[in-house]
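If you are new to this repository, start here. Below is one unmodified record pulled from the training split, so you can see the exact layout before writing a loader.
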Amino acid sequence: MGRNTRKRRTPLATKAIAASAALALGGGGLIWANYYASAHETNNAWGGNQTKAASATVATISCPDVGQKLTNVPAAARNGVAAELAKLDKQITEAYARLASTRQAQANDANFVQNAIVGPLKEKRAATIDRIRIDIQRVGGSFNQSLSQLASCTTLNTNQTTAGQTGGQTGGQTGGQQNNGGQQQNNGGQQQGNGGQAGNGPVAADFVDITKVAPNVQGKPAKQGTASTGSFVTRCGVNANKNHNTDNVIVAPGVTNGAHHLHDYVGNQKVNAFSSNQTFLQGGTSCQNKNDLSAYYWPVVRIQDGTQDFDQNADGGGKEGNVGRILTPVQAQIKYVGSPASKVVAMPQFLRIITGDAKTTTNGLGNANAHWSCTGFENKVQLTTQYPICPQGSNVVRTFAFQSCWDGQNIDSANHRTHVAFPDPASGVCGNGFKAIPELTMRLVYKINPPTIVNGQVKNAYAVDGFPDQLHKPATDHDDFISVTTGGLANKIANCINSGRQCQ
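And here is the target side for that same chain:
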């Protein structure tokens, strides 16, 4: 199959991180945006008294993402490999929890983290990676021995986790992110350092006043004569019935709490770790169009104002650093749009797509596809590495534009990426033999009282759920989709888009 070499955005390891992304906005089609991240970064410690040496305080554990390197796993081995990859995630989660609970021991012994946390973690990961090798070779597959070198993990200090996410300051982006020292505060949702309500973020540097961000949205690619200009809207609600779980059937099938964070589900109503293609067809749907049984799911957003929710003491929730009151979107728009370069083919049944990367804090921004903005600003400013502080009367908006090029053969791939790709950003053309499919776009709107930042502290922060070691960074936002349709709906969507109509 062709390689997914084209990305919606290509972060640069430069002072200004610039990127382009196709966005689904408001009531319309796609636009292109440049993202300029801010890094007027604090040098905060995890907590306690802060000095210059505090910048070396270990904030999180950074482990190579083995799953992204597994691009050729035989189908017969994929379930077993997925289970082992889920164990790698669990091992990191457990190591991070130990990191967060042993601050005094770390202060007393400079070698504690290496000897008691990182070293044992490497041993566990090495054994798990070897089981992956066995699973692959047992069914006649080839294992790249260099993957064994991915067992070792490193640590990131507080300064690295902020600078690595946000790069340099450009475009006038400021959020009042000043480090005035002092101790970590958690009273009434007030956060400083690497704290957050659960001790793992967000921090002041993760927020920016959107009114102080220079406009960065550019025009979309010009439509060619063969463009597919229609759109299809499916109305599936906002998850008002609170259909949640912490599974991820795409990445970790058969593994309870495989996501280590909570998801909202709309569309198909029977999606969990143990779902199959057959159960998807029997799952019912929250969509008005009952032929749309597709699964649309994303990590929840929480307000960290000192409140708790039902999962405060549960796996994937408070036990793993995802705390605060869960917010239900006030709007959730799901729209399929066309290609500026060609007609589209119908999505295949059970196609799986993940857009974005839940692990950008440690993976880097290569697969990041997070888009944060505010109502009234969406056609001007889009953010990837910071959460917007919206003015009064404006709501927070998350938008997603999924990969819209398909390899024509596979409904999934070993790393859940290489069977789909983004089109060329300049022309909108799918490369490497890929075919254009309807582009799934999503827009989620949240009513959030604006957080405030005073003297380097953020009060009433909000954050997207994530793996605990990812520190609730905005760039970790991601979205998941499984295409499940009946009654010829997939063809109807493609035909509507190709004919230039607006359908629902």
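Two things worth knowing about this chain: The chain has eight helices and 27 strands. The radius of gyration is 22 Å.
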